[in-house]
């Protein structure tokens, strides 16, 4: 087995030290705002909050069972009880949370498409008035069902207590990397089609957009930059799938080693997109940081417009 370099994991540590506190504060602020304004209880922000929680859960679990698995005492515990789904969970959780976040970006992109292009359609009205619990249930249930194929695998083990690298059957690696590539490819395709349609619509109606619709467009830009991280993941799994089919050493272990960086990019780009591209939230976030009371009047509602507010004629 080729030696796996440690520098990608060190980069992941740096990314986590810098970005995790920011992401945690952004998520706490989103939760707080849901109690202060109906704007942050809309379908878009409900989906976005679930995506934030999925990212934070991904970071926590990945760090706990992979990034710090070599700590004295912890690695002995993992190695001794690895058959109790610890080794399997270390591997399977990577794909499980990938599918959850792929589903999240698809929902966010389709929501932007529906709200901006089809604001007065029946489907838009249904989507905009969905109860939060239904959105949350839908967000987590569908990717969990898709992940059953992966989660049921238990034939994993650590190679040795010195390295704690996961050993898996080549057929399982090939199947999972191919499945991940398909899911990520479909995610990028669906989102790209949605944003392609949005671009054509905005290009045609750019001079007639109302202020409310322009605000929705800014939220679409926020999601678009988040989507770029999924193209990074697409490239990663395209290479991983190729190497898993052609060889079982060398490059495939290098690809496995750089996963922390790819995972870090996917996990940590979202809070910066929210802060830099969502002016309404940024204002409230700054108030939270300096312990100022959130002013609900500062939050402008941007959904459920009447026909007169959708587009200037």
UniProtKB/TrEMBL annotation:
Occurrences of domain G-protein coupled receptors family 1 profile (ranges): 9-274
One term under GO cellular component: membrane
Compartments where found: Membrane
Pfam families, A to Z: 7TM_GPCR_Srv
Top-level division of the source organism's lineage: Eukaryota
Keyword DNA-binding belongs to the record: no
Keywords on record: Membrane, Transmembrane, Transmembrane helix
InterPro entries: 7TM_GPCR_serpentine_rcpt_Srv, GPCR_Rhodpsn_7TM, Neuropeptide-GPCR
Chief location: membrane
Keyword Zinc: no
Transmembrane residue ranges: 12-33, 45-68, 94-118, 130-151, 178-198, 219-237, 257-277
Name of the protein in its database record: G-protein coupled receptors family 1 profile domain-containing protein
Protein species of origin: Caenorhabditis angaria
